[in-house]
Automatic annotation (TrEMBL):
One of its GO terms (molecular function) is metallopeptidase activity. This is Proteasome lid subunit RPN8/RPN11. One of its GO terms (cellular component) is proteasome complex. Residues 10-131 form the MPN domain. The keyword Zinc applies. InterPro entries: JAB_dom_prok (IPR028090), MPN (IPR037518). GO terms for biological process: proteolysis. Keywords: Hydrolase, Metal-binding, Metalloprotease, Protease, Proteasome, Zinc. It holds the Pfam family Prok-JAB.
Amino acid sequence: MGLFRSGDVIGIADDALTFALEASRETHPDEYMGLLRGEPASEFGLDHDGLLVTDVLIVPGTESNPVSATVKTNMIPNDFSSVGSVHSHPNGVLQPSQADLATFGKGQVHIIIGHPYGREDWVALDREGKRRSLPVYDVEMDDGEEFFHFTQEDIDAELGLDGDES
């Protein structure tokens, strides 16, 4: 399986868009960058063939400044299937730069989020940098509680501590 997943991207989950907007806001005045992950839309009760953007992957070691963000490709997990990318433009311009276009070769959808990072301050683009439709779907997302459901006692037990050491 390749890094980029096949299948048409039909939209983005509201939770994924909200995460990207908040991450862009928190990273300001530097650029934010992440990769987009998609899941079959049918898994969310949508009567569509294709993929729904459900997650934004933050790649460790990503370097950013006010005019660019660079992902260290060697830090992308081997099993990650991307459908595109998301990055912010702290200057608010929602047009892709030449450098942006050079990174759009893979993936089906690329999102640019502009300052002030509100619900209307983003665009979806195709590989060529042309605007495309990307509807936002309010779907029930798995919040991952089971994965992160552990207590300090669980951690202490895993480390072989009896809990009395402070």
